[in-house]
Design a protein that fits this description.
Elements: H1 7-29, H2 35-48, H3 54-81, H4 88-120, E1 122-124, E2 128-129, E3 132-136, E4 142-145, E5 149-150, E6 161-165
Helix pairs in contact: 1-2, 1-3, 1-4, 2-3, 3-4
């Protein structure tokens, strides 16, 4: 493997970063985890799902923790520089605002990637496909392709757009 990461590897790691941030936020909002526990659990979730290696997940979780630490340091220094002029509640709101902006940006990027991925999984009547399951995007009827063949219209609703899974 070359030392330079491929464009796809970089995109996968950026995607993992966003997903870990999102999962960490979910876990923390549930009130059952602190930041370290939530990051560890989010990392483990993606590793156990087989989507990423433990090394990738731990490295990206480290980046998330580092970035949140930098944001917290920045807020702390800002608070020190104005000594008492800012109420603690305003400081907390500032941190939440920063975290919300990070999550919003991440969410938008994830939605864009999800849409692109969904488009890649879209198959149409008349195309030829390998074995797998095609799910009608209109009525959710499943076609089980046992061999490579031309895709027929949906037997239930006669629509022509499917999503492929294996």
């Amino acid at each position: 493997m070359t030392e330079k990461k491929s464009q796809q590897q970089v995109q996968d790691e950026v995607s993992l970063y966003a997903r870990i941030v999102s999962r960490t936020e979910e876990l923390m909002e549930s009130g059952r985890k602190n930041l370290d526990e939530a990051l560890k659990k989010a990392s483990e979730d993606f590793t156990s799902a087989g989507e990423f290696t433990r090394e990738q997940s731990e490295r990206i979780a480290g980046y998330v923790k580092r970035d949140l630490g930098h944001a917290a340091d920045h807020l702390s220094k800002t608070a020190e520089s104005i000594k008492g002029a800012v109420m603690p509640q305003r400081l907390a709101v500032g941190a939440q605002s920063l975290f919300a902006r990070i999550l919003t940006t991440t969410s938008e990027q994830l939605q864009d990637w999800a849409q692109k991925a969904e488009t890649q999984l879209e198959f149409k009547t008349g195309e030829i496909t390998s074995p797998g399951t095609l799910t009608c995007k209109n009525c959710q009827e499943e076609l089980h392709m046992k061999r490579t063949a031309r895709i027929p219209p949906c037997p239930k609703c006669h629509k022509t757009v499917f999503r492929k899974s294996y």
